[in-house]
Amino acid sequence: MRRLSFAEHAMWQHTFRLVALATGFILGNMSSARADDRDQQVILAIHGGIGLERHEMTPELSKELRAALRVAIETGRKALEAERGSSLDAVEAAIRSLEDSPLFNAGRGAVFTHEGRNELDASIMNGRTKAAGSVASVTIIKNPITAARAVMERSPHVMLIGRGAEVFATRQGLDIVDPGYFWTEQRWRDIQRRWEKERQEKKTRDQQGAAVEPGHAWGTVGAVALDRGGDLAAGTSTGGMTNKLFGRVGDSPIIGAGTYADNAGCAVSCTGHGEFFIRFGVAHEINALMKYRNLSIDKAAGEVIHQQLKPAGGEGGAIALDKHGNFAASYNTDGMYRAWLTRDGKTQVKLHDD
Ligand code: ASP
Fold first, then answer.
1. What's the pLDDT tens digit per position in 1-43?
2. Of 109, 172, 180, 222, which has the fewest beta carbons less than 10 angstroms from its beta carbon?
3. Is beta strand 132-138 parallel, antiparallel or unpaired with respect to 159-161?
4. Distance, CA 324 to ligand 1 centroid (Å)?
């Protein structure tokens, strides 16, 4: 083959550079066009926790989970599109729907403590005002997310726990149920298995209940939403972790750990091993990386979930949404049940990396 002369070589290099530049320009514009495309904006996203690993999933359960996530998105969408519907309404409505399903570890399907009870936590936050509300360790409130919102809107406090939260919810006229309402066959079997394991391992009284099962069947629920007024909101609800000691509180009701919303940054709801999420202030950290380091929502969520939590042994994930409708779902586990709705009315549902 003929060798190129110096002049020909230079000309080819120049042409190549021009093509590369033009391609970069077009691609660059395409991605900003995508971000500006209002139809692509996510306006509501939910998660149903880390859930089962792919190899444990059955086709029947997958179908049920997907259907329940769709119902929750649809419920949230209606609230968002109602006259004067706000992101807070959408978050509350979507989470209530998930709390009413026995499939998730929140409300009805809450897991059992080491003592064989159900203790529920939830929180909600308004991204415009930074108002927030939460309840922890409640045992008779049917929908803890609604109680969290009541604390935010109808009390001077941010967080109420245990009996105080229950008395408050009762006085506010919220739905109160017998603790037996939260008993479900599946969760009861989970805790029986756990107790049996502890018996076999001959754990001392002090060691019991301390060991939770990392990565197994965490099905906490959460939602983030963006309304027509450009306001963000986030909320999270959970039964905590199977076999937790009574009185243990995880990240879900802790503002800045499991939930955060800030119009100047993003709305975040987390799921995973709560102790790590509290220590790393995960929801606030994602927001801070966007605000102060100008990271995209994807990068901010990815950095916390993969670079900070994972090396420390913290398993879990988060969904995050900013005021432009950019959405991120980041997890360092096998999957995270999730669904999202774009402005053009399309819903996507995913359980793992599929
Ligand atoms: N983060 C929750 C907790 O630690 C558990 C979960 O997400 O499933 O209470």
1. 445 454 555 555 555 444 444 444 444 333 333 444 567 899 9
2. 180
3. parallel
4. 28
